[in-house]
Structure formats: C-alpha cells, structure tokens
Amino acid sequence: MPLVNVMVNGRAYTIACDEGEEEHLRELATHVDEKVRELLSSVGQVGETRLLLMAALLIADEHHDATQRLAARTKEVADLRAAQADVTQSAEDEAAAAGLFESATQRLEDIAARLAAA
Asked: Using CA atoms, how far apart are residues 6 and 69, in angstroms rounded to an integer?
C-alpha cells in the first residue's frame, strides 16, 4: 500500500492509499487545503482541529448540494424520458389509427364500387 505525503495548512501528513490512487489523494488534499486557507482568511487561526472540522463541513455541504442537484437533474431526465415515451406512444397510436382509417376507407370504396357496378 503506497504512502502519500500531502500538505494541509502548512502541515505535512503521510496517508496510505490504494495503488494508483496517489494523484487523486493529492488532489483531494489540495482541495481540503484550499478550504482551510479560505477559512483562515475569514475566521483566522481557530485551532487546527476546529479549522479542519470547518473545512470538512464546508466540503460536506458542497457535496450535499451537488447530490441534490444531481437528484433533481436525474428526475428531470426521467420526466423527459417519460414525456418522450408518451409522445412516441401517441405517434404510434396515431399511426395505428391512420392505418385503421385507411383500411375503413378502402372497404367503403370497395363497397361503393360494387354498388355502382350492380
């Protein structure tokens, strides 16, 4: 299991990760560090534990918002697919009705032709 060195709030941390996940872990640590730096500029140094907790809460809030937006978009896509299915079904029903109408028209023309010939 590889070990990765990351920096958050000017402090080095060594973290184990799965093989091939090293760069992803570095990117995540960079994101956490950015949040910590944002907090530092707005609330100042309030202690490392509190600062990391606040950063985690900000990131969790972003994740929650993104999850809700994704759920809303997923519902929109499902609604659009249902509407598309309704339109497709309506078009199929219309085509079937047109076929029945064409068949009925042909039968009436045949009957009219036989009556005219009689």
From this structure: 31
Which one-letter amino acid corresponds to residue 19? E
Q: Which residues contact 99 (CB under 8 A, 6 or more apart)?
A: none
pLDDT band at 118 (very low <50, low <70, confident <90, very high): confident
The answer to whether 83 and 72 are in contact (CB under 8 A) is: no
Length of the chain: 118
> Model-level pTM?
0.65
Closest CA to 34 of 26, 64, 69, 23: 26
Dig out the tokens for 48 from the structure.
């490392």
Domain boundaries, the chain: 3-117
- Pair of tokens at residue 45: 């140094």
Amino acid identity of 11?
R
